[in-house]
What does this fold into?
Amino acid sequence: MSTANTINSTNNSKNSKNNSVSDLARKLVQDLVPYASARSSMSGGAVWLNANENALAPAYQLDGTFNRYPSCQPKAVIDAYAAYAGVAPEQVLVSRGADEGIELLIRSFCEPKQDSITICPPTYGMYAISAESNQTAVNKVLLVNNEQLDLAGIFATTPKLVFICSPNNPTGDLIPREQIIAVLEQFQGKALVVVDEAYIEFAPSASVVPLLSRYPHLVILRTLSKAFGLAGLRCGFTLAAPEVINALKKLIAPYPIAEPVAQIAAQALAPAGIAQMQQSVATITQLRQEFCQFAQGLEGVQKVWPSNANYVLLQVADAAACVAALINEDILIRNQSSQLGLSQVVRVSIGNPDEMQRLKQAMLNYFSVNKRVSA
It folds into this structure.
């Protein structure tokens, strides 16, 4: 056998081994299209406005050694968040981001290959991904005008979980409280209604926490990733009746929250941390309002969605071209055109004042060039 044939034989053997290993994965995993996070789908850039992070980052200090396993549900964090949210400690579960809360709810309450969830696109993509990875069907009932629930469509489904995102990602709209109540009334004794309040600090009066006492099947998702400026911490919360929390605890990992995470979360939820968050929210809200006014004045922007969060959705003529042009300026924003119910839209996270000024100049340059070309 020649050297070349030996090499080819060896390569074929390696390829065969690699293929056999990948084939060991579940068919569901082989077929699943994973969630494309902002960080995984885009890299580089100097100004990151594509992941709804808080650019006004707080700083905290760690204390102590880390040779001991942490508490599964750190009391200091649970008590602090319960006080902040206005609920009892037994109504709180802390997890690795709100994403783990979504996963736990589906795993705990949905029988694989039997049950379904209902979601209302355009909305956060992880509801569907988590359901599909747990062999749970997904009913998709589009929002009306991208801002209100299609109640008749939702009521026509028979889910175990209904996910409602408010403020909604990526549109920034608040779902009317009376519609959420209507869904709660419809599914009493039939399904859990999960309201994702990841961005609620930007519209605190819209929270449905006061409804928890009336509706034991209401579940609320929260996070420290957005207004608190701690996306890298991966710390989220589920608020619900104790019976729901106890069910989730049966499936949560033994040590979901690392000790450094617990320490920083407790500091963020102390009075000084909450005050810092509220000041950050006020600054971002002002920057968002200024950006919306700016964007409405650009001839190439066809629509600016009213936002109640730390991002703004824009309708443009060519979303991919707009994103590419800003990448050339070292600025990352996110193309959301693949979302069901949306077309040619980009989502812009609100950055710090310098970043927003840089973005505005880049957008002025891009849209003025497009105007000259079209003319």
Summary: The longest helix spans residues 271-296. The radius of gyration is 23 Å. DSSP finds 13 helices and 13 strands in the chain. Residues 63 and 263 are 8 Å apart (CA to CA).
